[in-house]
Amino acid sequence: MWAFIHKLGSPKWFYAISARLTPWFWAAAAVLLVVGSVWGLAFAPSDYQQGNSFRIIYVHVPAAILAQSCFAALAVAGGIYLIWKIKLADMAAAVIAPFGAAMTFVALFSGAVWGVPTWGTWWVWDARLTSMLIQLFLYFGVIALRGAFASRDSGAKAASVLALVGVVNIPIIKYSVEWWNTLHQPATFTLTERPAMPADMWLPLLVMVLGFYCFFIALTLTRTRSEILRRESAKRWVRDLADGHAGGRR
Amino acid sequence: MTFRLEGRGLGCERDDRWLFANLDLTVGPGEMLRVEGPNGSGKTTLLKILSGQLTEHDGELRWGGQPMRRSRTTFLANLLYLGHAPGVKAALSPLENLAWYQALNGERGSESARMTALDEIGLCGFEDVPVGQLSAGQQRRVALARMLLSPRPLWVLDEPFTAIDRQGVAALETRLQAHVVRGGSVILTTHHELAPMAALRRVALGVS
Amino acid sequence: MTFRLEGRGLGCERDDRWLFANLDLTVGPGEMLRVEGPNGSGKTTLLKILSGQLTEHDGELRWGGQPMRRSRTTFLANLLYLGHAPGVKAALSPLENLAWYQALNGERGSESARMTALDEIGLCGFEDVPVGQLSAGQQRRVALARMLLSPRPLWVLDEPFTAIDRQGVAALETRLQAHVVRGGSVILTTHHELAPMAALRRVALGVS
Amino acid sequence: MQVVEPRTGLAVAVRATIKRDLTLMLRRRGEVINPLVFFALVITLFPLGISPDTALLAEIAPGLLWVAALLATQLSLDVLFRSDFDDGSLEQLLLAPQPLPALVLSKVLVHWLLTGLPLAVMAPLLGIMLALPVESYAVLALSLALGSASLSLIGAIGAALTVGLARGGVLLSLLVLPLYIPILIFGAGAVQAAVLGASAAPHLALLGALLAMALMLAPWAIAAALRISING
Amino acid sequence: MQVVEPRTGLAVAVRATIKRDLTLMLRRRGEVINPLVFFALVITLFPLGISPDTALLAEIAPGLLWVAALLATQLSLDVLFRSDFDDGSLEQLLLAPQPLPALVLSKVLVHWLLTGLPLAVMAPLLGIMLALPVESYAVLALSLALGSASLSLIGAIGAALTVGLARGGVLLSLLVLPLYIPILIFGAGAVQAAVLGASAAPHLALLGALLAMALMLAPWAIAAALRISING
Amino acid sequence: MAFESLTALLAMGGHAPYVWSAWGVAAALLIVSVAHARAERRQLIRELQRRNRRERNLSERETDER
Ligand code: HEM
Ligand SMILES: Nc1ncnc2c1ncn2[C@@H]1O[C@H](COP(=O)(O)OP(=O)(O)OP(=O)(O)O)[C@@H](O)[C@H]1O
Ligand SMILES: Nc1ncnc2c1ncn2[C@@H]1O[C@H](COP(=O)(O)OP(=O)(O)OP(=O)(O)O)[C@@H](O)[C@H]1O
Ligand SMILES: [Mg+2]
Ligand SMILES: [Mg+2]
């Protein structure tokens, strides 16, 4: 077990193993996203209440789910980095944070846009919306904190601590926000209750969610590999690797 | 029980440049180590590593034969570190500053002991002036007064002579000598010529 | 036109204690004045008065024969003051810091001139590193590089040798000497032994 | 020379740290009342910016008071470790042979004593200006006293993380304000419940639970954050 | 050795100062957006503290937005001279053979460019969240752009006065907030007028007049305040 | 197929601005992420190669001198 963890933590080993995995994830992401998009945009039936604006769900929900998963991943990576000092975990965290923020933004934007035809307003202070907004701020905090340190290691540790503190807080925030909203005015808008969606509505959604996840994994692997090159650029094996790369001259 | 600080294979990299690598050193009772080198050679960095403040380095530190991780509390109880910054509060008086430092060790200390220490270090008459209103050299002297108060065997001093006048430097040198003779140990950096002392060893950094 | 900084009957009181009183001094071309005294004797205070930063004092300052009030702009254009704090921005590189200081004089300067100055002061290879990541001595060297860039006749230097290594001190002494020979003038404080120089005069404070 | 055995003496160290910080804050008497005056000023700005209509003001008063108190606490947090960092005494605090969480907890305690507690005491006074019903004053003060302790603890984590940074002030807000939201909600909720005549007990209980959790976890997080900042 | 005649070269010095401050701020990219994020966060806090009811929020939106923008500006002001003071470059700025008011004006200009202007641009977005009517967005942005320039200028006086003090941050608020009140009243008034469909021109004209006055007087006041602080 | 024609698909039953802007922003961010990742990787490798070449040059010159 220990040996395995440490092997996993070795950038060289990871670089080699991920080279084989990454293309598969990119391919799966491409296929799933294309199929899901065409299915969701053109073939899924329109909603009897919302009409075609309902098709926003196929980007909104995957982005919202992924945004939350990314924060969890960030905290896990931060914990691994702080406890076992595995640099690879931090490289992954550095890469995940901006993507998580981007997905949070997509969820917020698509939700806000969706709100206009369905609720008649861009924004309401609904519990889910509010906690998503706060999550965006938490992402900004983690990214800004990492960038504010001159030393990379200190920035990494600080960001890890903040991610851990944030992940302890997210459930509390969610819970309190929900409580707050029902407290002030019981019947505000709720996100459309799930009207037992027909299969040809939720199947494309499932495909899209899987596609987003594959995309996330592929992107994280690719960018972590770049991060390895950046941080280990003084190592022998990285030098040799660059020479062996297409376009390199001996 | 006797003490000994050992560093084995110490190395530190900053921005892809090795300040030092594979450095072995050891300091025990009655020994004095002077870390030498030009500006930017890594003296301060080495002292921070030796005092356990910087943990991102190669190699291993041992205190009293045990790895530093395990003996950290004992080590800290035996260490007096004075860095580039004097570590005294500008709004407090020298007396109040010293009282806090004593209490940090869990000692209550006595007002008269603190007065004596301040007198000895040359701050007679300034005991109750807020430190912020003292001159550069006087502020450093407040920090130096800690050496007289709490008996700690290991002193780690980063340029202790900064801003101190000539008489003060001589007095300080005598004090260091006395500490070593009593069986304490000292690690220091300075660009000053030190008066010749027994038991002085040197480590030179960055003589590339 | 020639220049001369004169102080007549200078005095400064701090907390009911006269640091110095009735001090007359004058510095002209080719002269070097060393202000001496133990810690807390008022050297920094005197230098701040002489550079026009502290205005609450007794006595009168004159520049080029005119009272300081009237000749302040000319005076400032001829003054280079380096205080206890180095006055360089930690987030900027040495090159950027120097560029700003040149521009403050209304000069555009050239990148290559700045590079040369930094090389000469011993910061070759550190021109683009944020100053905050340099060592104590290197940070002071960035400030000292200003002496090489803008030709100002009057240098007022408060402990310029702080944190500078032995070679650096020697180089700096030669530089001061050269400035004086060229007809500039220098006022400085230091606790270092200065190498014997021609044209060096001394003012002793607080030898009570 | 004798090797020094690590003494315990934690009580002495904690008491001295509390005394030192109290002295430091009280020595500049002006500074202790700064957060209070900021609080009062912000509360004065709102009627000016919004409208002098008392019915409207009374409706938004619990929220305004809580947000203003929160901002006042958070502003005063920036300097919690900053000045210790600048003059090198933070370095020395970390090198003390005492458990760091206990020492930082005493610093936070002093911060709360001189900021959160006075804010809580003063809030009813400003409640009058915003036409808040008198029944809610006790709950307002109690909720602020409880809540501001959590605010100090959580904020100190952010202050510790940003202590070495040049422009920490605003970054600190970014890190800390999102984490404050539950406390704000329960605190303002308690006052609102009191205004409406409902029981504020559940809200106050929740505030207490949050405080207990913060007391358990925050000191360790603060200590870890300080070690990171010093290392940078 | 030649005596140096005082050169003019003011344009060079001003341009270099602007460039230096811009570089300093932009080097840490995170820090430029910090006031913006603070603005957004404070605006988020209010609905959480007050109530999610859109009608109520829309009514108080102009005041909330203006007060939050004011606080964001004022917080970011604290560091305007602080870091220059700490590392001794303020001392050197005062010893430069150039008119000090011009140099400080360039520092304030950079502050406004990187704080006030972005705040004004972002305000409509937050207006959406507070359910502010769309018609008033242009006036909101314009009033904030004009007003925040005055805020920066006036705030800089306070920043200059407190730069030597250890805990300047909160004291600064006290000095400066009362001076902000006229700007707040006219600014929020302009937006309110636009919401109600009335003409915002008189309010905007008054804001412009205040700005002109601040531009004429503040640089001298800032310069004098800096000289006083350095002398301490 | 839920739509009669391509134009109907584009019109989204009157909801075109909403649906297409939401999808557009999502697609744009995904595409930008991919492009950025690719550019980053390519630049890193080019930098490494340049560094290798430079160092090889240096060491060759050193051996030449010797
Ligand atoms: C800015 C506005 C919005 C935000 C921030 C937002 C956020 C979220 C979040 C966080 C989820 C949870 C995903 C999960 O974990 O399962 C979600 C799901 C969902 N949202 Fe939104 N939303 C917004 C607006 C809307 C609007 C306007 C609608 C439709 C009227 C909507 C419909 C849905 C649906 C149908 C789901 C899936 C429900 C489920 O799986 O539980 N959302 N949204
Ligand atoms: N701001 C101040 N307020 C009150 N007294 C001050 C202030 N600054 C300095 N002093 C007093 O003036 C005296 C002289 O200070 P100064 O800094 O000029 O000494 P110095 O000769 O430069 O000493 P050093 O060699 O230590 O640098 C000190 O004893 C100090 O107590
Ligand atoms: N926080 C940091 N980040 C990156 N590099 C640093 C940092 N601190 C120091 N360095 C680098 O490490 C080198 C050694 O610094 P250090 O302060 O140890 O030197 P020193 O020997 O104490 O010099 P001095 O005699 O000037 O005090 C410097 O060249 C500096 O560039
Ligand atoms: Mg050093
Ligand atoms: Mg001095």
Instruction: Provide the low-confidence segments of chain D as ranges.
Output: none
Task: Provide a count of the helices of chain A.
Answer: 8
Number of strands of chain D: 0
Low-confidence stretches of chain A: 185-189
Task: Please summarize the sheet with the most strands of chain A.
Answer: none
Small-molecule components bound: protoporphyrin IX containing FE, adenosine-5'-triphosphate, magnesium ion
Shape of chain D: elongated
Name the average pLDDT of chain A.
Answer: 85
**Into how many domains do the coordinates of chain A divide?**
1
GO biological process, one term (chains D, E): cytochrome c biosynthetic process
Main location (chains D, E): membrane
GO molecular function (chains D, E): heme transmembrane transporter activity
Transmembrane segments (chains D, E): 32-51, 63-81, 102-131, 137-163, 170-198, 204-226
Topology record:
The complex is a heterohexamer, with 1 copy of chain A (250 residues), 2 copies of chain B (208 residues), 2 copies of chain D (232 residues) and 1 copy of chain F (66 residues).
Chain A: H1 2-8, H2 11-43, H3 57-84, H4 87-119, H5 127-148, H6 152-184, H7 199-231, H8 236-244
Chain D: H1 10-27, H2 29-49, H3 54-77, H4 79-86, H5 89-94, H6 100-129, H7 137-162, H8 168-195, H9 201-231
Helix pairs in contact in D: 1-6, 2-3, 2-6, 3-6, 3-7, 3-8, 6-7, 6-9, 7-8, 7-9, 8-9
Chain F: H1 6-11, H2 16-65
One adenosine-5'-triphosphate sits between chains B (14-15, 19, 37, 39-45) and C (133-138, 163, 165).
Labels describing this entry:
heterohexamer, A: 250 residues, mainly alpha, 8 helices, 79% helix, F: 66 residues, 2 helices, rod-shaped, binds protoporphyrin IX containing FE, binds adenosine-5'-triphosphate, binds magnesium ion
